[in-house]
Specification:
Distance between the termini: 40 Å
GO molecular function: nucleic acid binding; peptide chain release factor N(5)-glutamine methyltransferase activity
Order of helices and strands: HHHHHEEHEHEHEEHHEHEE
Largest sheet: 7 strands, mixed
Organism: Aureimonas flava
Strand content: 15-25%
Shape: elongated
Domain Methyltransferase small: 131-205
CATH architecture of the largest domain: 3-Layer(aba) Sandwich
Helix content: 25-40%
Catalytic activity: L-glutaminyl-[peptide chain release factor] + S-adenosyl-L-methionine = N(5)-methyl-L-glutaminyl-[peptide chain release factor] + S-adenosyl-L-homocysteine + H(+)
EC number: 2.1.1.297
Number of strands: 9
Number of helices: 11
Oligomer: single chain
């Protein structure tokens, strides 16, 4: 965090507390549900203060340039830009990830997928695993799993070079860059080598529903990472076939899915011979992650979760 832009004797300058209050009032007036939290996050970034600093230095004067930065950031939020896009970063799991225009924001729902993938990988004990994260974006899934499994390696696949560059930086910041192998491709066949596990949060929103999304998602998340085709299942159709071809016997395939897609995706996987292991719901009770396994290894525990 930059040095705090507070405390100097700026005659007539507003206090930290008054700047936070002004930003909060503007966001509330615009009907932004998270106005209180957003105002604090934006003020902290503009002023170079953490949450405690905003409280401890509430009555200090803010530098004029900091006030101008906060005003500009608040204007962006009023235009529906998500707060974490404005900040340029978002926490996920135990890490913080830089964002870029080519990446989705990693969201709490995806932690359901990461946790389920970790369960699958843990069944192999301390074996050195090679897994793929297809549509890596920020690299959040790959980085979290690499951190949990220090003998694992990941091929992080994405079609957007900007996303791969962002993911590289995030892997380096998390200390896993030596086991993070970026690959620019749309799917898996470009890899052409056996994999122990494939994990993916692919685009799954039907094309016709894109215009109904929240403006912050529709305008600022990359369409490439959202548009799942006419029925939202285009990526799944291709990935189940490629995973069935590349997974080692007993290898695992794990997907994040959208609301109501569990049965359709399970049918696609079954059609190529992948066995359903379990489904995991998110904190809202919605089926969010699916786990499939390629046949050929019978010594793992049966279905769990």
């Amino acid at each position: 965090m930059a040095p705090p832009s507070v405390g100097s004797p700026h005659v007539g300058s507003p206090s930290v507390a008054s700047l936070v209050a002004e930003a909060r009032a503007l966001l509330r007036a615009a009907g932004i549900a998270s106005a209180d939290l957003d105002a604090r996050l934006l003020a902290g970034a503009a002023l170079g203060l953490d949450a405690a600093g905003l409280i401890l230095r509430a009555h200090d004067a803010a530098a004029p340039d900091a006030a101008a930065r906060l005003a500009a950031m608040t204007a962006r939020r009023l235009a529906h830009e998500p707060v974490h896009r404005i900040l340029g970063r978002r926490a996920f799991g135990e890490h913080e990830f830089a964002l870029s225009p080519e990446t989705l924001e990693p969201r709490p729902d995806t932690e359901t997928l990461v946790d389920l993938a970790a369960e699958a990988m843990a069944l192999r004990g301390d074996a050195p695993l090679l897994f793929a994260d297809v549509g890596t974006g920020t690299g959040a899934i790959a980085v979290c799993l690499l951190a949990r499994f220090p003998r694992s390696r990941c091929v992080a696949v994405d079609l957007a070079e900007g996303a791969l560059e962002t993911a590289r930086r995030n892997a380096a910041a998390a200390g896993v860059a030596d086991r993070f192998w970026p690959l620019r491709a749309d799917y898996l066949l470009a890899l052409g080598r056996p994999l122990d596990c494939v994990v993916s949060n692919p685009p799954y929103i039907p094309t016709a529903e894109l215009d109904t999304l929240d403006p912050g998602v529709r305008r600022f998340d990359p369409a490439l990472a959202l548009d799942g085709g006419p029925d939202g299942l285009v990526a799944y159709r291709r990935l189940v076939g490629e995973a069935a071809a590349l997974l080692v016997p007993g290898g695992d395939l794990l997907f994040e899915i959208g609301r109501g897609q569990a049965e359709d995706v399970a049918g696609l996987a079954a059609a190529v011979g992948l066995r359903a292991v379990t489904t995991r719901a998110d904190l809202s009770g919605i089926a969010r992650a699916l786990w499939f396994r390629r046949g050929g290894m019978a010594d793992f525990p049966p279905e769990c979760g």
